[in-house]
Each structure stands twice: as structure tokens, then as C-alpha cells.
Amino acid sequence: MSSGRRSRRPARSDGIGAHWVLLSAVMLTLGLALAIQGYINHPVDSDAPPGSARASNAGNTPGAVLEGGPIVDPRGEGVRTTAPSADSVALTFNNGPDPMWTPRILDTLREHRVHATFFVTGSAAVRYPELIRRMLAEGHEIGIQTLTNSDLAAVPDWRRQLEIRGAQKVITGITGHSPTLLRPPASYDNAALTQVQWSFMDTAADDGYLTVLSSHDSADNVRPGAEVIADRLTMLEAAGEVVLMHDGGGNRSQTVAALDAALEGAADPGHRFTTVGGSIGVDSSRPASTADTVTGHAFVWGIRITEAVVVAISWALVAAGVLTLLRAVLVMVVAARHKRAERLGREAERDRGWFELPMRKEILEPASVIVPAYNESAGIEAAVRSIAASHHPVEVIVVDDGSTDGTADIVESLGLPGVVVIRKQNGGKPSALNAGIAAANHELVVMVDGDTVFEPDTVHLLLQRFADPKVGAISGNTKIANRGGILGAWQHIEYVVGFNLDRRLFDVAECMPTVPGAIGAFRREALDRVGGVSDDTLAEDTDLTMALSRDGWRVVYEDEALAWTEAPATLGALWKQRYRWCYGTLQAMWKHRGAMAQSGPAGKLGRRGIGYLMVFQVLLPLFAPVVDVFAIYGLVFLDPLRIAVVWTLFLLIQLVMAGYAFKLDREPLHALWTLPLQQFVYRQLMYLVVIQSVVTAFTGVRLRWHRMERYGSLRVPQAAQERS
Fold first, then answer.
1. pTM value?
2. Residues whose CB falls within 8 Å of the CB of residue 317, separated by 6 or more in sequence, listed in order
3. What separation in angstroms does the CA of 421 have from each of 334, 452, 677?
4. Which of 93, 191, 356, 656 has the fewest CB atoms within 10 Å distance of its CB?
């Protein structure tokens, strides 16, 4: 991209932080959705409150409860317990509903005209509401077994309340009825009741709940065999029992077979086996109020919506991962082709693949080098000296765009032959470039920023691709000069990998979207045909490149033509630079969106180049915060090891791609040690820039021109010093 200059267009405020408001709202909503789904599907166990030894049943648990019947009623004054009548057995099922086993158990019960009580888990009920409705429609009784089947004795009070009331809201939202039966997870018979369990049973009674324990365990959860389970059901005592069985939580094929055998062998199964309420002669379900029903519906739909969000994110993550991998493979394969083509030339490549370079015909005609400059006193001397020392014949036109720091005076004081200074009122970089083009004496024009230095052979190497008459513009290879320090290293990696590696792909695919302002060569004819450099966008280099492609010109990349530029040395300066780049690129993409529907070179730019930018420089960065939030979700609720493995694989892909790009550019690899750290600071900065740019564009706020601070770190290459 180009260096910053002031624009003639009136500046408006960059907004009042609409992007931050939007990002915060999205992240909070996403975080809430993930937290809900994490809690529902992967609850994190908490330690029991201090002093609540789970194995102890000492303390204030009433003796009547420890020695009484399995149905406990702490409501009102005193505590009452009871058991089913002597001629009945309350058949109960835990841990459902399950999409496979619950329907088969319901079919078996219907076949034998038996009703039972199902203690359901709220999270499962949300997923399979049709099974809950079927239970109610077929005369079965519904109780709750908390929201996530968490052991209430091992969680703090707030979670107990959430577990019980959340499950109640789910059943109310699905059926319109409020259940009054509660079975705490990990509870068995009365004698095994702990002090903590009694405490929350007593508290639940304030909300009208009866607690149902069990007096006879079928042992179906350990799967001892269908015959063993059936024997335990048929060998019940005559006295009333509450039988514990399971319709969820695992493979329940033995439960289904045993239940069918036991009911088949019973003399009158419909009379002997019944619901908990039926066994004690009470109605355990009551119609919910309108307010409770509405609240229940909202609760259920809230869980469903968050689940849909998580599913969508999961699939989007898969798609993003696939795209990232495909991009890495594609750019490396294409870069290898590009490099080989440059080495072997057109004739050798013609029989090898789908990318061909024209026959080399050395370009020796002189070129005009235009240097637009606004307050470039820190680096203009190094830039002009390096260009004037070029091996290729050049005229250097420095266009001073109303500088106030003596930039033009510095250039004139150098007294270099072939260097011309044009002074003009400040009008912005496009007007400065157009003034330079108008003053140029040669057909071939090179544009370079005032903060950039060339190698002695840069201009000559850059111009050689003009041997092909279809080529209208050539991008050079921009290098970071001040790459010391971690921020400089990160930008160095980005230039080598993200910019120059992509440009090889764009060259092969004939869809180059940007010839950077730091180094680019153009045919004068091509510039005249598109009307010169436009000031419609803040990314005049991208705008111009796209205009040339739409006019039918080929835009190519020459990796041997090196230009050294200054990079921002602070995060604030980097933010301003990339914000302008990204915003200007969005403007250019929108301006040239018509290329998507065109044919020929314009269509290649639209469908390949602009499409690539949209996916990898807009959409994926916009999705990046979701990736980070989902990673935190995975570390908390999923398998941290799996998350670490995925992140490591992602990092390895980047390391391989970066290493290959550095090899192609003959760069030392020592800067790559900073790449892992880049994922925790630089990556976030870049996607926040994209978010701010997109929001700014959609809100219609015009971005001011952000001029980059100069540091004076540029030096004339040694060979250029000797030549000048």
C-alpha cells in the first residue's frame, strides 16, 4: 500500500466508536450463547460448599426421612414420607429423554398398557420435546431431574437453584404444565441420603416439589444382562416400591428387553405397575399460569437459539479451517510455479504447466520515476539518492505536495543530475502523482513513496516484464527496512508471507488487485486510458490497479525488484496505517464491484482477485474474534488438549507457509521465532482494524487521511552510495 498524505476532501470524524459498540455487543452475545451451551452440554463440576461432607448423613436430616418412605414431602410444617400402596409399584425412569431408547420404552409401556414416571433432564428435553409431549399424551407422569443432570450435592446453592428452576421452565415451556416431582441426580434410597441432599430437598419444597427417591434399584445402569434386570423386576415384594430404571445415559437395550419380559410375565401389569402419583393417589402435574408458560417458552427457545449459534459457528470454523489449509497449499504450489517460470523462462515453461512468461527481451529505454512527497524530510534524501543511483537510465521527479518541513529544499540541495523538483499546493497524493505523470518525459513510469529506497538494479529489474505488450503495470517486492524489534519482525513476516506470496498467486491467476505505492511501474498509455490516478478512495494504488485490469491490461509481479520501506514502529501508528489501507481497499472493491460480472481480464479481477480479498482479507478476519472466543469456550468446556492440538496444527501450517515464503525471498529464518507470539497480539490488531473499517464503511463515516510518522531509519544501499 501507499504511504500517507493529506487529502483535499473535507474530513469528518471517524465516528464515536460504533465499531467498538458493535463488536462488544456481538462478543457479549456470542459469549453468552457459548456460556449457556457450555453449561447445558458440558457443565463444569464445582466443589461442594465448605463443610458439606458429601458422604455424611449426620446433622439436621430428620430421622423420619432417613427411615421413611421413598416419597418425601417437606412442604408445610413437619416432614412426611410415604410409599406406594401395597398392591402397586411405581415404575420410574431417569436420565432421559433419549432419541433411541425412550421411544422403545414408551412403545413397550403402551403395548402392556402401563404408565410410568419419567424424571427428565432439562437439556435433553429441549432437544427432544416431541418425546416429552408423547409421554404426557400417553398418560405418563413427568418429573424433573435437574437441567444438566448435575449432582446437586457437589455444586453451590446458585447452581442448585438454576438446575431445578431451569428444568421446571423447560417442561413448562414444552407442555404448559408445571411438574411437582423432583429426583435429585446421584440419589438412591432414604438411608443413603446426605445432609446436603436433604438441605436442597427442603429448599425445593418451598417451590412445591415432592422429592422422589427409590426403594428398589433394577441395576439396569450397570447392564448386568436383560434376564438379571427382569428377575429384579418380577421378584418385587408385595409391599409398594419405587423402582429405579433408566431410559437415557447410555445403551439401554437390556432395559428395553427386561422391561418387556417383566411386564409380559406379570399377571396384571397395568394394575401393579403405575406412576408415582398414581401409586399414592395424587395429581403431580398442574397447569402452568400464562406468565410461567410464556417464560418457559422463552427459556426453551433461548437454549435452542444458542445451540443453533454454536452449531453454525462449529461449521463455520470447519469451513474456515479448510479454506486456510487450501490457501496455504495453493499459494505455495503457485509460488513454486511462479519462481520456476522466472528461472526457466517461457520456452521451458510452455511444456510444463499453465503459467508462462514472455520471452525475455531486455528493456533498456529510460523511465520516469515519480516521488510524491509531503513532509518527508526524514527519509527523502535516502530515497532520492537511491533512485538516482539506479543502473537503469531514469529521470527522478519529486513532487512536493505543499510540504512545510523543507522537503523540497532538501532534494534541491542534493544537486543530483536528472532530479527535478515540482512544488505545488497540497492536494493529496493522487494529485501529486498526476502532476508527476504530466511532467514525465518517458513512456515507462515508476511510482515510489518518499519513505522508500531502491537497490541499484531495482528499476531495471522492475521494467523487464514490459517485454510483454499486454502488461500495463508491474508490482515490485516491498521489504521492511526497520525490521528490528518484535513489531518490526511481525510486519516483516506479514510482508514476505501475506503480501508478496499472495502477489505470486495473483500474477499466475491474472488478477493482481494492488500494485503498492512503495514500488510500481506503469505504461504511460495505460495510465492515460484510465484517466490517471483517481482520488475516489484512500487506497489510490489499489483503485488504480483495479482500473487498469478492468481496462484489459495485465498486471504482474516481479519479486527480484526490491524496495525498502519504513514500517510503523508503534502499535498506534500501525493501527492508523492499516485502518486507512483496509478502508481504502474496501472503497476500491466497492467501486470496482462491477468487475464480478464482466468477462476477460476484468472478470478475472472481479471473480478471482476481489473474491480472494473478500474471503481472506474481509470475511475471515471478521470471523477471527469468534474463533478466539470459541477457543476460550473450548478450553473451559471442551477438551483443552484437543484445542491445543488444533491451535498447534494451525500454527504449523503458518510456519510451513512462512518458511517457504522466506526461502523463496532468500530471507533468513530467524524472524520466524516471533510467529507464535504474533497470534496473541498482531493478529488481534489486524482483525480489529478490519472490523473498524467495515463498520466505518457501513455507517457512512468518511475516514480522515492518517499520515504515518517517519523515523529516518532508511539508508541508501552501499552500492547506490558508491554509484552516486
1. 0.79
2. 627, 630
3. 42, 17, 44
4. 191
Q: What is the pLDDT of residues 483-510, one digit of tens each?
A: 989 999 999 999 998 877 899 999 999 9
462: number of Cβ within 10 Å: 28
Give dist(CA 497, CA 659) in Å, integer. 9
**Whole-angstrom distance, CA of residue 114 vs CA of residue 680:** 60
* Average pLDDT estimate for 557-569: 93
**Angle, alpha carbons 432-524-585 (nearest 5°):** 55
Mean pLDDT in the chain? 87
Phi, psi angles (nearest 5°) of residue 321: -65, -40
- As beta bridge partners, residue 478 has 563
Among 58-72, 120-134, 261-275, the range of highest mean pLDDT: 120-134
Residues 367, 445: contact at Cβ < 8 Å? yes
- pLDDT higher at 660 or 706: 660
Q: Kindly indicate the confidence band of residue 389, based on its pLDDT and cuts at 50, 70 and 90.
A: very high
- Residue 156: phi and psi, rounded to 5, are -70, 170
Positive or negative torsion for Cα 641, 644, 649, 655: negative
Instruction: Give whole-number Cα distances, 490 to 377, 685, 689, in Å.
Output: 26, 12, 16
Q: How far apart are CA 512 and CA 604, in angstroms?
A: 9
Q: Characterise 375 by phi-psi region: left (phi > 0), alpha (psi -120 to 50), beta (else).
A: left
Whole-angstrom distance, CA of residue 594 vs CA of residue 588: 11
Cell of 104: 422403545
Q: Which residues pair with 243 in a beta bridge?
A: 91, 216
The average pLDDT across 197-225 equals 90
Cα separation, 20 vs 27, whole angstroms: 10
Measured in whole angstroms, the distance separating CA 48 from the mean position of its chain's CA atoms is: 36
Q: Return the bridge partners of 471, or none.
A: 554
Q: What is the largest CA-CA distance in the chain?
A: 116
**Cβ atoms of 560 and 478 closer than 8 Å:** no
Residue 324: CB atoms within 10 A of its CB come to: 16
> In 176-289, which ranges are continuous DSSP H helix?
195-205, 226-234, 253-265, 269-272, 276-280
Share of the chain above pLDDT 90, in %: 63
pLDDT in tens, 82-112: 999 888 899 999 999 999 999 999 999 999 9
Q: How far apart (Å, rounded) are the C-alpha atoms in residues 672 and 303?
A: 44
C-alpha cell at 547: 482500473
Mutual orientation of helices 620-637 and 18-41 as an angle, nearest 10°? 30
Q: Give the count of beta carbons closer than 10 Å to the beta carbon of residue 647.
A: 16
Dihedral sign (CA 449, 452, 453, 457): negative
